[in-house]
Design goal:
Helix content: 10-25%
Number of strands: 6
Largest sheet: 6 strands, antiparallel
CATH architecture: Sandwich
Order of helices and strands: HEHEEEEEH
CATH superfamily: Galactose-binding domain-like
Number of domains: 1
CATH class: Mainly Beta
Strand content: 35-45%
CATH topology: Jelly Rolls
Length: 185
């Protein structure tokens, strides 16, 4: 086989492989966390107060993600306390942070103590986050206070698959082929 045919064959294979890889759909990658597994940062405080990692009159349940995620969807289950004082009303805030210090509210819900809430939030625009937390208001140190008693969360991000070659390579392929054919290399 001549050098020209080998080069053309290799270029065509590379083009097809690259186009196939680039056409691959993005995939959704999800991570689940739960207070039962002591994943949340207040677990030790909850155990100290109530002997359980999931409740202890806490205003927040905060989770540190294993890496910076570009969050596109949040599915969660949260029980609002105190369970022995049902019917207290307030708000539950779902928040994300890059540093665990400055928080951005993703969504808030009207809630009542003694009830369990299950919800899914689809973000219009994915958000970078290293932490996620559930926070209630009014907090436990206020008069008619609420608490986060049990929580679990599944956080999903879309991961783009990229081809082996960049899109910038495609315009050069016909040029290279034309040169190879013109000079019969």
């Amino acid at each position: 086989m001549s050098t020209c045919k080998i080069l053309i064959f290799l270029l065509l294979c590379l083009t097809l492989l690259s186009a196939t890889a680039m056409a691959a759909p993005s995939e959704e990658k999800c991570l689940s966390l739960s207070c039962v597994g002591e994943d949340h940062l207040e677990a030790e405080e909850a155990k100290r107060r109530a002997g359980n990692p999931c409740w202890g009159f806490l205003a927040t349940h905060t989770y540190r993600l294993p890496y910076r995620m570009k969050i596109s969807k949040i599915s969660a289950k949260v029980t609002i306390g105190p369970l022995d004082a049902p019917g207290r009303e307030g708000r539950l805030f779902v928040e994300v942070s890059l540093d665990g210090e400055q928080w951005k509210i993703v969504k808030s819900f009207h809630v009542k103590s003694g009830e369990e809430y299950e919800f899914e939030i689809e973000l219009d625009k994915p958000r970078d986050a290293e932490y996620i937390r559930f926070r209630v208001n009014p907090p436990p140190y206020a008069g008619e206070w609420l608490s986060v008693d049990f929580s679990s969360v599944t956080i999903c991000e879309f991961v783009e698959r990229r081809g082996m070659c960049s899109v910038a390579l495609f315009p050069t392929v016909p040029i290279v082929l034309a040169v190879l054919l013109k000079f019969r290399i």
